[in-house]
Amino acid sequence: MDLLGAAGERPVFEHAGRAVSGEELLGMVRRAAGCLRRHGVGPGDGVAMLLGVGPEAFAAITAAHTVGARVVGVRPGLPERGRSRLLRDTGVTVTDRAGGPDAARPGLVLPLGELLSAPDDGRRPRVAGRPRDVARLLHTSGSTGVPKACAQTYAAMTAAWALRPDAWPPAIRELAGRMDRFLVFGTLASQVMMEYGLLALAAGGTLVTADPPDLPGAIVRHRATASVITVPRLVKLVADQRASPADLSSLRALMVSGSPLEPGRLREAADVLGPVVFHGYGQTETGMISMATPSDVPGSLGVPPVELEVRDGSGRPVPPGTDGELFVRTPSQSTGYWREPGLTAGVFAGGWVRTRDLGRLDAGGRLWLTGRTRDVIIVNAEVHYAGPVERLLAGHPAVAEAYVVAVPDAGTGEAVHAFVVPAAGAVPRLDELRALVAGELGGACAPTRLTLIDEVPLTPAGKPDKRRLTALRDRSGGPSPRGPGRIRHGDQRP
Fold it and tell me: Which UniProt keywords are listed (predicted)?
């Protein structure tokens, strides 16, 4: 509210052809907070937010925090099982989605228009959030199962870096200087979208909504200087720019989120788009852990500005240059998974968060990711991580993207099945890729099957969806499916 008040008449949102000033947005917050209070919503009450990215959605979320509620955001496209799990323990739903199953949810359902139609008394609302109360439940992507709800307290949310310029690490300070016009899309239930949106506002920028969020078209139409992008969409943007360049002269920052970016693809993006790629690493459980700027060594994630330890299988820290599992401690980390004590105990312990990611710190303190502890293929009872195989395959000149999953094998238990998006004009061959992997990582890691696909299927959070790849694997001998992940040339086998 201080930030919006200081903005005054300066536009802080551009949405649906209109500009909304800081003072106008602050007025929306006052009206929404007043409406929630009249309905009895206060500290500790659960409020579900089924909203998009417009200024009204931003005001509703801010108002719910103002009255001290426990805010639960739900992104569009989430399966019903995951939605029901996230919305348990919420008695109030605020929505801008007409009809649908949520209109009949138990408890009070407030249309967004009704929430903002309350009178504005012009007085600063009383902030009721208590430090130890849960401020929001942030849902994980669900890429390994049903999304989990990470509980972040008001104290942790206050300690986050986005709204505190004095706490910005160097990489964030550099990024903030490029966020004059930040392109937002999808939903503010996305932790990434909301955090970068707050950063843009704190830096004096404007949030510009895009519908549809097509790239590069949305950047051109809105003269955007910054946006968030996943690795598959970055690869596609680079290919589109090579084929038919659009005027991206306004663009100064693309924040890659969701999955690692192979160094070769980063160099290619820099060649085509210029020095605009920032590669962030973080988790829903922790918030930001580290970020690489365009000047960082390709493949590294910069120097983490948080406490980070690389540990071996026994839980002991390892020296620089040694791979291990990453454990972190951040000011804004969650306290655990909401109503999931068993899951919490496996991840949150002693003030540290077990990321289940593998990586190393080099002698200069830079972070390098090497895989995930759960993304494995077990060949002849030996565990092999998918990450190194994928990065090696993605470095082949005929490959734009590569993803591997386990496939049952009568002789070895499991084997590697590679799904590859070919580079423009190329047709990767299984024998070449097998030789590449076998020469670097050993024959057990070499793919036994190769499927060429047009694009990787994505989760609702924009991450590569390996469960859908596994399903595609199981039917890859049949007709080619439609949509993302469709098979281009069928299976290659030895």
Answer: Ligase
